[in-house]
Design a protein that fits this description.
The chain has helices at about 1-30, 35-70, 80-115, 115-120, 125-165, 170-210, 215-240, 245-260. It has about 260 residues and is an all-alpha fold. The mean pLDDT is about 75. Pfam families: 7tm_1 (PF00001). Belongs to the G-protein coupled receptor 1 family. This is G-protein coupled receptors family 1 profile domain-containing protein. InterPro entries: GPCR_Rhodpsn (IPR000276), GPCR_Rhodpsn_7TM (IPR017452), TAAR (IPR050569).
Amino acid sequence: MLTYCVLNLIFPLVTSVENILVIHALWNASSIPANIKKFFLSLAFSDLAVGLIAQLMSGVMVTALIIAAYKNYSNSFLCPTILTFCYFVNFFLAGASFFNVIAIGIDRFLAITLHLRYRELVTSSRVFMTLVSVWLMSGVAACIYVSLIYTIVKYHQNQIHSELQLSNSAPKARQLVRERKSACNALVVYIVFVTCYLPYLCSMIMLVAHGNSPSSFTIAQMISLFLVFLNSSLNPVIYCWRYHEIKKRVKSTLKKIVTCT
């Protein structure tokens, strides 16, 4: 539990610095296709928000619970309103990252399959509308998630209560190669995303299935939640690894910061 708190209080800084550098590099990058650039910027902003808000908030909450338990303070400060807000923010931002990754995958699939028709069909305005839809869907999904959590919690509370009562071309070829490379880069983002999110999904299924879960399930859920947050720190590393220009611009920015200090 203490390790979880420390990691969630340190990694927001790491995540924020990484994503700010990547956003700056992406904003000025010229070799990356305009559409994929917009999708990556949207994903980087959602990852930045995960680090600055969701992960930091989670670390502060668990730290407060540990202090309350250690000093025998009341944990009544975690009222339903605060818990609801935290659940909503966490799921909204994680959902934004999820839908951004899905949108990136679809965009790269269309770029490879449509070839020359891609630019005609996937216009800048349609990309913008897609990104707006991504964030709106995240908000709707977060509302549904919070409602579902409350329904499950209420059900298990009633169940526990009843149990207690009972017991108590060349240019074309180059363009195709470029699109395929972008698709490979998106695939790497997908693989890392699934690796980080799948354990959390499994832990939530186990938690819902078992209801009043043992402490081992709670620990597993905390570890898997940290992996979800960790995904926001890994994405900037992937950008620097797979895109030479982003890596170059991030290095240039860091050198300027070091020189100024």
